[in-house]
Amino acid sequence: MIEVSNLKKSFGALDVLKNVSFQVEKGEVIAVIGPSGSGKSTMLRSLVHLEQVNGGSISVDGEYLVKDGVYSSQQGIKQVTAKMGMVFQHFHLFPHLTVRENLELAPRLVKGESREDSQKKGSELLQRVGLQDKADVYPANLSGGQKQRVAIARALMMNPAIMLFDEPTSALDPELTGEVLQVIKQLASEHMTMIVVTHEMGFAREVADRIIFMDHGEIVESGSPDQLFHQPRFERTRAFLQRSLK
Ligand SMILES: Nc1ncnc2c1ncn2[C@@H]1O[C@H](COP(=O)(O)OP(=O)(O)OP(=O)(O)O)[C@@H](O)[C@H]1O
């Protein structure tokens, strides 16, 4: 359903993505791992047009965001990016809005949903992430784990077909990562299509259907967690895993 081919992205003279290609099927959970600076975030951000690529193609369900380096019309870009919800490392909640208002803003403004509909959906999603009692609280009064769960609920408000997570637990104290990973696991069990950039190897092993290992702007190896964690032929991923577990 997501098809990425020969993606290229440079920042000045720095080639950050070099011919990145992969596909994600409906319902698949992909974990993207790799050293710092390998291009994981840039790849993810390119999918939702937060980065403009220099070449290659991205399509979702056959609709192109960019084809051979040429972007679709504004309308086309909107249609493709609307299929994806994104969750960032640093939450990106609106600080001047309550939790409920953070959730309801985009559905009302972008989709023109009625107050009644967005309130109903907001309450359901807050319940789902275990924060029904925080609806009228401002982000400053939430823990990092709670903020991230609000960010996930906010992304789900737009009914995305695909959820993208960019290191969703990296900014959290270790004791708060579990509550966020639990919500992502719940989505995986409901067969939400997801791409999760993560440094949480245990999570990648447990939840991902497939792991993509990126290094220096390339997908170096990819396979099931079992393959990557245990088979000798995936030696570069294994070497990385051993380094990161030290
Ligand atoms: N806006 C930018 N301008 C210039 N260079 C950038 C920009 N964004 C990213 N880079 C560079 O691109 C490279 C890849 O960055 P990216 O954030 O995609 O890596 P990453 O694999 O997600 O790293 P990390 O795990 O540390 O988040 C890095 O060398 C980074 O410094």
Automatic annotation (TrEMBL):
SUPFAM superfamilies attached to this UniProt entry: P-loop containing nucleoside triphosphate hydrolases (SSF52540)
A Pfam family hit: ABC_tran
Subcellular location: Cell membrane
Family: Belongs to the ABC transporter superfamily.
CDD domains per UniProt: ABC_HisP_GlnQ
Molecular function in Gene Ontology: ABC-type amino acid transporter activity; ATP binding; ATP hydrolysis activity
Key words, A-Z: Amino-acid transport, ATP-binding, Cell membrane, Membrane, Nucleotide-binding, Transport
Domain called ABC transporter: residue spans: 2-241
Major site of localization recorded for this protein: membrane
Coiled coil segments of this chain: none
One GO CC term on file: plasma membrane
SMART domains per UniProt: AAA
Protein name in the entry: Amino acid ABC transporter ATP-binding protein
Membrane topology designation: Peripheral membrane protein
